[in-house]
Batch of 3 targets.
Target 1
Amino acid sequence: MDAGLAAVLGALAGSMATISAAIAANRSQRETARFTARAEHQRQRREPRHDVYKEFIAQASRLRDQIEIFANFDLYPDSVTVETVTRYNDTVKVLQEKWVEVGLVGPRDVAAASKVIEELGRSSALQVNRLQWFIDQEEEQRKIEEQATIEGSSMQLTALLDKFIETAQVALDDDRSLK
């Protein structure tokens, strides 16, 4: 082979290697940029959800703590007052507002879990109001029955709150490793 042809083939091989390296580097940069953009998008979706879920959990926990007062009122007979009942009703109203926020940020399974808690909150508010009325009317048997109903709601609320937390954790988990 003559020297000129060898030089041309060498230059051609060098050019092909350079072009191949440039293409590979371009693809790598594009994949890195796509990965970074996806991670940023997930972070931007996760942060608002995290905050909304956290507020909902805090409010549902307040409700759980307050319902225990009514479930155990026989231990603390002076605990069922107009003030404690009003506070409970106010907590339920705030929980309803937080439930709407959870429904808006989704996803569906988290929204569904929050709806069950919100519905239990509303029904337990009726139970608490009835309990106060039965106490005021000195209807002992109905008071005892309502207290038993509230005890059941208290236990159910605890279980539902645990389920909501688990569902929210899965929704916030990027790689779905908790599923």
Target 2
Amino acid sequence: MIMVYAGVVAFLLFAAGIMAFQNSRLIAQQEADESAGRVSSLMYSVYHQSFSYNEERPEAVPLFQFTVHSRSEGQLAGGEVDKTIALCRVPAGGGEMALSDAQSWMLGNIRQSALRGEQILADSFTDNALSKGEKEMIFLLESAVKEETADANHY
């Protein structure tokens, strides 16, 4: 009888050890995935240069850009005559922003330029979009430029 109890106890200890080992592996995998997810979400950067449709760069894939022209004969707020701001997807972890932050940043700059009375010309690279989120962002930025330029034309 004691042998049966000893066998049951040994079996339960063995099973508990296996479960603890599996649990520690699962937790380690989740922590690795979370840290990789934070780094890989930084996939977007802003460049102050113009991209063309047939131009391919592995370090920066353009998704949306807008060029700002001063409506007056003077210069823009920063002293330039024209400036182009391009939102690009970069290799995972190599960017400064996540998709939502990049969208907010671009919207803010579009609105600031419109409030200063500057002419905005937008180019979108929908063929370069890989995800539904990128396509939606491009559509939203196009809509914002149309809305802001329409509002500016009414004044």
Target 3
Amino acid sequence: MKQTVIVKTLIASISLLTLFAPNQASAQLVPQPWVSVGEQDGDITYAVGVRALNFGVELGNGPDGSTGVDVLKFISLPVISPYVGLGYYSEDKGVAVSGGVQVGASNNVFVGAGYNSVRGFNGQVGIRF
């Protein structure tokens, strides 16, 4: 139990540190939406998300009917964009931590993989405008 609290605290601290890192200036606000499907404890989980200005928000449906929202911080690299996030879920699931990567598959499509402590492992497909 104590080790779990320490790990969650470290992940939250790293998330906050990346949250306040300087961002590259963008000329336009162009959102990048995605859908996500995953699995946790034998239940299928779903989510929709959007990214803009290296921040993201993901609304997800987890096991046992839990619903929650995650706030994500992306680190933009040339081909791959790793992210970390923190969220809150209903049905006594509480605080969730998440992380993953998104990779550009073409000029207008990206794919990704991630993990959320409430929704489990998931795959993502999204579009760029």
